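Contributing new records

If you add data, match the layout below exactly. Sequence lines come first and carry their own label; structure lines follow with theirs. Keep one chain per record. Anything else will be rejected by the validation script.
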Amino acid sequence: MEQSKSGYINMERCSDLDFTNSSLRDEHLHRYQLAALLAHGTVVDCACGIGYGGPILAKNTNVNKYIGIDPAIEAIQYATTNFKFDRLSYSLGTLEDNGVPPGTVDTCVVFETLEHTVNPSIALHAVRKMLSENGTMIGSVPSKEFDELCEATYSANPYHLHKFEIHELVELLKSTFESHFIFIGEFTLGTLFRKFEGSKAASDPVVVVEGSIHADTKDQENIYGSIFFIAGSTVAVNASIKRIGKVNRFFKSIPKIKLDIEENLPLRVAFNRSELMIVQRDKAITDQTKMIDARDIAITDQTNMIDERDSVIIDLGKMVYERDLALNAHASSLCLRDQEIADYTNLLGTICKTTTADRALGTLFSKEHVALPFRDMSLTLYLFIKKLYETAVEDEVNILYFFAREGQLLKKMFDCYQSSIPKASQIKTQYLLVSRRSTFLMSLGDLNSETFEILFRQYRCISVYDFLKSLDLDAYSPQLSAAMSITGEELREVCNDLPSAPIFQKLLSLKFFKDLYETERVARSAAFKAYLASLSNGVIPDFLHVVDVGWKGTIQDNIYNWRKQAKGVDANVKGYYVGLIAEGIKTSKNKKVGLLFSNSGKRTANFHLFNENRALFEILLHADHGSTLRYKLTTSNEVEILFDDFSEQVMVEQLVAPVSLTILDFFRQLVFLLPKLTVSESQLMRLVATRHFNMVFSPTSQEIGWIQKIFHAESFGVFVASRFDTGNKPISNMQRLSFTYRLFFNRKDIDLGFWPWLTIKNNGIPKLHSVYSVYRRIQNCW
């Protein structure tokens, strides 16, 4: 069996249901026989399977037209070949997506289908939309008791997504239809006593005698097989009940002897197979006897092998001797390692005694010590962590939440920095698994008033599919494209300005999207609230203090909007960032500060220095997991966090992690070293600025080569992998002159990329990048 595009399982596929089995056949046919008494006008049979119900329903002369709908193409092909007659047709479709015009159906048949739908309420609304004013829905679902009995007998059915008790089904029908009527269907064995018609005289008229059903259930537990229901307007339901006549109806099944043949014959076949297996076992015993004889021969051979083993033991003794030599050599290497550790300890002691911080850092960061790139970033991050701690203490912060993914390494550094501080003065930290995508939908308001400002302020030239993916609703794109009557290609077509595009307005007006949007928004908000509370001893602080690398604080804006929906004017969030280049939604209640560099308000003195190749911070501060997708509450009210595919994993493990771990190691050494030196705030800033300047304006060829191997996967707005390789293609002198001219006289026409210095070096005239470095140095004036 397979899941259909509408989200439910087609249980009556021709490959899944053998209608040569009489008992199974009759159980399904009885439903259609009862429905045939009620069917009229245009009839739609949802999940019709192989179509055997069509001819039964069409026998009612009140049926003008029958349409069988099923999502399985092989089932529709079988039905069209075997059951297509006048007034009968079959087509692909589902409850929610079937191409039937609204209000055109008089009778909608939905047998054993609702339990397979993802959302029965949405499915019933789809049925109601198809029905005419006095149209009738006829349907059935297995009862919860019968479903559980089947699970105990045959194991669980993975395709049943819901189990219905009668009162639950009644509430579901009430929420959708004006009126309803419930039947109970039981497939059971019994004895039918009827008058022998052959005893009548030829002249006697034929008399149909009403029978009665007798059931003694005192010693039996009665389990209802199916809950059969009629729903629609009050007029339609009353008319249906009147058409049936007697409510209790018994449909004749097969004789018990035929049932026994079908059920017991396979057992007899199995017994015959068992007897055959016994014969085969006896033969196997005989063969085993022969094997024992062969074993004796093998024992003789094994004696010979023992002699050979003795020879091997002698050789093994030689190997043990060689192993001892290797162990001695390893012991010597351990002694050398211990000596290196002692020398390094002496080095730190020497550094602490050095008269100036410049010389101390020069010794620590000597070229001979470590050859990995960008190690001076540890000093830059030390300055940020120091400022972060001092600012948090000034703000009387109790707990800092470090945003994923850059926050993973930042939190380790902050905790390391606090290790040298008295415990009473330490600030509690938490690592918060968030992303722009995971916090976006829960931050939004009612769809009728939502403008999606946080997405569209940066990404307007995107497709509807990109929009859905930013909401993490792209899994529903097949249903949405079908409901909008467009193809998947049209859904992925990029619009010049999506907010004003007609296809986007069509999506927003779609009822299925509205219901999906609201359901997911509420569910994810509740799950995130539980997740955040679990990190804060069950209570979310009134004032959230968050830490991230930068640059606009979009995740903070999402969380602020989410908090504002619950707390109103009492929502307070403050973000501490490495750098801030745009304010986003910055208010007195949603504060942001760039501790290392900022373009918010008055530009900081070293803005151009740290903003040059700011992508370095994102690259080097990389976590060991993928981007967070969403939050989900399990049935036991536990929070489940779902992640996107970690497409950067190999690159992070092989290229980024070795460099990041070295930076973290140097950071730990700085935490040990700098407090022991007399370094003022201005001296520390000058030291950091000087070394950071050398990293971004005078990098080594190794550093340039390393960063050109890195890529970054975008996970919001647009979903592409950005590479940092600026290219090493040969460039002519004329092209260099053209680039230089445009740089000075038509600056807007040039994209200098993530690292302007490197772009100028690769594309400008010789030494132009050196002039650019001098210009930036004068600008910063540290």
